[in-house]
Backbone:
């Protein structure tokens, strides 16, 4: 039985940070090795994962499926947050505008 | 007459060709198999068939398309005939968000955890005589009042909770009098209102007189007809229902007909009794009923009611009850469903219904805050219940902390920023986003992730089902459309 | 319908200049007040005229004019008695409605009279100009191009003569704001001379797309000012068509927004006819969604005068056929909590649900009823008809209650 699985993500579709965040979400179930890889001029991110307990095929397969979904989710979060940052910052700054908590430069308290 | 031009003269678009227009910002989400709910920047919706939506988006509409004039007037597209759409949208977006800068309006005070009831779904109350251990102290209360009035909101609502609030009536009086006095001394006094959640079983005439004198609203619990209510809410003597009804009558006598409102908690036993529950509220002469969505905290691990039902089952119950309320209205009874009314206010107007549980940015801290019996301060009632289960993630601090410290709490800021619905995947593209909200506490509890993944989120499922349900009902029936429009404007 | 202006005859004219004067019925009016007053003598009094009576009128301080009003025979009979009486005006019976306190404008050279202000009327409107930058299909005051700013000059004078206890006056046109700053000055004059008198101004609002113009008007701080601004459709093409001016929709909307930004009271007016009916409900929805802060919305019936008569075939609709649409339109506005009224419709042609916002509003001088209205149980609640509707076109479904 395979102890670990290796999957690769196309680095032009997914950022390293998104992949790392996704892996992190499952660190209670598996251990991860994340490494960038270049092959034939194309960049990838290689993730090698092995289950911490209950080592069986179906669990591993399920985890890979969940990880794929999570990577997509994290990637989207990153992109959407960036795209909508101006609107979000404007509204939050307005919300904080009368609390006396706004910094002199007008930025809301940093998260 | 020759000096008058025909209407065609004023239309720079020829009727028989593709119109020249630009899209204004909008999102769309499927309503059913063929139609889409399309919402513009101001959160106003129109229903479009898929085919029309496709032509709209691909720039293939003609000026003579029946919906073209509507889409232009309702700010989904713009052409050379009018440049006012951005100004009009901006006014509406501003109006929708105006309330945000008011900051926290709802301040909940937990007067005591002591209670005479032992409702299985309650996760906070204690049956105890130990007042010192479970009552809010004067020192803490005083500080909480100061924090309350520090909020920039020109309107403050202080809501007393428990346990059973009236068991610590002395402190209720203290808070009311202290708050009123401090408010009077403010440069700009607030519009200060009080409301107390109570089961009314220990309410004396003296207490009610005080409430009358200070115009304190009364909110009690009525889970349904006698058998259901008493089953849900046991107390010594098994007479919660009788006492509640007597209490309601007494309050109305002293404080007026509409001075008392009631809330219900839905348990597994409630789910098959939708008609009975509504009938009970009608029989008790209430103007409406609040079918509030369940909270999973009501089914804490320590009771056997844990997850006794899921979102889907609750939605069935909700639909049945709402349809029944609509039928009663059709038969001539003016009776409102307050949860639908709240949602409809967001869907059909630019007003804010003041409902802290469905807002983006999230209502935690920013719309409502709770001062616990022990002086701890939480970002919401759900956050307090989470702490009862030993998770203090959403504790802002204590009443010893300053306003600044409480509202610059890192987790709070992070939660508000990260769960901003417009910045969340799926929410950002969702037609319902302007009407929806963020619920970091719920998602943290369910998924250990404040944002959650909306495809698997019960919060999302529930809200989408309700949005779609309200729209479908309005589309099918002009009576319901008129009824819902009236409800939307009475919030 | 009352005749408010027209041809008259003059005798013993001493001046060529037009003049404005207050009507008095008191021949013993103190001499010091006579130069600004005209003495009105009507039929019955004409027959009692004696030389003696007229002697007081030949004194050193004469009235600004003497108005004799009656049938031709009475006027001819009186002609002899008035020799030596300066500035006599002979008025046909049409003007018998004039009373003490009314204000008239007399043009001795052109031999014309205009009743500018009637004390007993609940609605006095001052015409400021006949020039307009619109050409509405149903305009009741068809525009003229000539410079008629003398009307504005007269208005300044009239404001000072109107009794301060007058409840309300109106400014109309044409388009009053074409006068720019002088219009603002007139509003200020109204505030200073008639501080307790409500002022209703009819305007297309386009001049207020200029924010500073709106600010200027607001700065006058007139205590009871309201601008009545028409918006005929949520469809810019249709609105522009009805007012026959390209770009009108945007400018009017912009003007409304600016006015409200500066706290000026605005009423939106919609005339209901064939061209505004197709989108009447949608227009009310547009107003409720986008202009919720507007103070009032008026839905008005068609007056059959001016351009309306020429365009009758594209304008006229029997209100009986649109009563349900009207109900829906009112329902939309009311469900959003907007104040609204239905004017200039007959009570038997509107549904009961409109009763709450139905108003009697036709100016008294042009308000009449049909013969079949005589026995109607609700006649006193009904606004009746425009005289021109009686004359030219009205519903075929008028039925007494």
Residues:
């Amino acid at each position: 039985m395979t102890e670990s699985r290796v999957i690769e993500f196309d680095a032009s579709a997914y950022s390293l940070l998104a992949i790392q965040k996704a892996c992190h979400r499952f660190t209670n179930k598996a251990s991860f090795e994340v490494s960038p890889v270049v092959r034939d001029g194309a960049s990838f991110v290689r993730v090698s994962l092995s289950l911490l307990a209950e080592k069986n095929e179906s669990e591993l397969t399920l985890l890979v499926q969940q990880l794929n979904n999570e990577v997509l989710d994290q990637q989207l979060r990153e992109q959407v947050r960036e795209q909508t940052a101006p609107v979000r910052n404007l509204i939050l700054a307005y919300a904080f505008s009368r609390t006396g908590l706004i910094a002199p430069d007008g930025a809301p308290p940093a998260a | 007459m020759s000096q008058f031009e025909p209407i065609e003269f004023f239309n720079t678009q020829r009727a028989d060709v593709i119109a020249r227009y630009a899209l204004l910002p909008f999102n769309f989400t499927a309503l059913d198999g063929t139609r889409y709910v399309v919402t513009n920047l101001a959160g106003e919706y129109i229903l479009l068939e898929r085919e029309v939506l496709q032509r709209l988006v691909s720039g293939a509409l003609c000026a003579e398309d029946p919906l073209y004039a509507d889409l232009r007037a309702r700010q989904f597209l713009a052409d050379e005939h009018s440049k006012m759409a951005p100004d009009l949208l901006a006014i509406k977006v501003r109006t929708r968000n105006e309330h945000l800068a008011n900051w926290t309006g709802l301040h909940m005070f937990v007067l005591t955890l002591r209670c005479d009831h032992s409702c299985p779904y309650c996760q906070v109350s204690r049956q105890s005589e130990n007042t010192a251990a479970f009552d809010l102290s004067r020192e803490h209360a005083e500080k909480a009042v100061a924090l309350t009035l520090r909020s920039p909101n020109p309107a403050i609502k202080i809501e007393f909770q428990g346990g059973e609030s009236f068991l610590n009536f002395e402190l209720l009086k203290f808070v009311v009098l202290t708050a009123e006095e401090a408010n009077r001394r403010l440069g700009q006094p607030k519009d200060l209102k009080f409301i107390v959640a109570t089961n009314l079983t220990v309410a004396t005439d003296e207490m009610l007189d005080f409430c009358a004198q200070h115009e304190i609203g009364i909110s009690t619990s009525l889970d349904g007809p006698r058998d259901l209510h008493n089953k849900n809410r046991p107390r010594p003597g098994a007479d919660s229902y009788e006492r509640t009804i007597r209490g309601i009558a007494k309050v109305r006598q002293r404080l007026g007909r509409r001075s008392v409102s009631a809330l219900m908690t839905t348990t597994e036993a409630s789910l098959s009794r939708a008609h009975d529950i509504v009938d009970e509220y009608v029989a008790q002469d209430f103007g409406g009923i609040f079918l509030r969505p369940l909270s999973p905290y009501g089914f804490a691990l320590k009771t056997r009611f844990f997850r006794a039902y899921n979102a889907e089952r609750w939605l069935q119950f909700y639909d049945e009850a709402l349809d029944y309320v609509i039928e009663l209205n059709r038969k001539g009874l003016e009776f409102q469903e307050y949860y639908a009314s709240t949602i409809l206010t967001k869907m059909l107007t630019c007003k804010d219904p003041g409902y802290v549980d469905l807002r983006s940015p999230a209502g935690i801290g920013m719309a409502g805050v709770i001062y616990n019996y022990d002086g701890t301060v939480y970002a919401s009632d759900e956050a307090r219940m989470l702490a009862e289960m030993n998770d203090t993630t959403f504790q802002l601090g204590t009443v010893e902390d300053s306003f600044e410290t409480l509202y610059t709490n890192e987790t709070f800021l992070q939660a508000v920023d990260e769960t901003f619905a417009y910045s969340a995947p799926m929410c950002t593209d969702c037609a319902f986003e302007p009407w929806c909200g963020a619920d970091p506490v719920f998602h943290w509890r369910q998924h250990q992730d404040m944002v959650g993944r909306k495809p698997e989120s019960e919060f999302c499922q529930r809200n989408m089902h309700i949005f779609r349900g309200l729209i479908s009902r309005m589309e099918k029936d002009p009576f319901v459309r008129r009824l819902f429009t009236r409800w939307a404007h009475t919030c | 319908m009352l005749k408010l202006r027209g041809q008259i005859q003059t005798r013993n004219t001493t001046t060529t200049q037009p003049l404005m004067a207050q009507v008095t019925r008191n021949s013993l009016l103190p001499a010091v007040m006579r130069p600004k007053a005209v003495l009105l003598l009507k039929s019955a009094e004409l027959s009692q005229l004696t030389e003696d009576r007229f002697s007081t009128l030949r004194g050193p301080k004469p009235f600004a004019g003497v108005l004799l009003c009656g049938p031709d025979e009475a006027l001819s009979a009186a002609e002899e008695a008035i020799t030596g009486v300066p500035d006599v005006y002979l008025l046909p019976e049409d003007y018998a409605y004039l009373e003490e306190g009314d204000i008239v404008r007399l043009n001795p050279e052109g031999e014309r009279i205009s009743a500018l202000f009637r004390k007993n009327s609940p609605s006095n409107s001052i015409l400021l100009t006949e020039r307009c930058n619109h050409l509405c299909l149903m305009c009741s005051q068809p525009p003229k191009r000539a410079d008629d700013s003398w009307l504005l000059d007269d208005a300044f004078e009239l404001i000072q003569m109107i009794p301060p206890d007058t409840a309300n006056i109106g400014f109309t046109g044409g388009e009053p704001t074409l006068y720019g700053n002088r219009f603002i000055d007139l509003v200020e004059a109204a505030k200073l001379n008639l501080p307790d008198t409500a002022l209703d101004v009819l305007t297309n609002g386009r001049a207020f797309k200029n924010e500073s113009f709106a600010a200027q008007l607001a700065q006058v701080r007139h205590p009871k000012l309201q601008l009545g601004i028409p918006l005929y459709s949520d469809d810019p093409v249709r609105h522009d068509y009805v007012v026959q001016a390209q770009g009108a929709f945007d400018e009017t909307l912009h003007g409304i927004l600016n006015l409200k930004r500066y706290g000026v009271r605005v009423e939106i007016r919609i005339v209901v006819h064939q061209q505004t009916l197709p989108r009447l409900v949608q227009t009310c929805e547009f107003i409720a969604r986008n202009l919720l802060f507007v103070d009032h919305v008026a839905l008005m019936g068609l007056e059959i005068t001016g351009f309306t008569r020429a365009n009758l075939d594209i304008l006229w609709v029997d209100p009986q056929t649109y009563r349900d649409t009207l109900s829906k339109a009112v329902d939309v506005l009311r469900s959003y909590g907007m104040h609204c009224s239905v004017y200039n419709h007959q009570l038997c042609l509107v549904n009961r649900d409109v009763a709450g916002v139905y108003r009697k509003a036709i100016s008294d001088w042009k308000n009449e009823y049909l013969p079949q209205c005589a026995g109607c149980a609700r006649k006193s609640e009904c606004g009746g008809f425009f005289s021109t509707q009686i004359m030219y076109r009205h519903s075929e479904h008028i039925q007494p209650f």
The interface with chain C takes residues 1, 3-7, 9-11, 44, 69-70, 72-74, 81-84, 87-88, 91-92, 349-350, 482, 485-486, 489 of chain B (CB under 8 Å). Chain B has two domains: 7-96, 105-410.
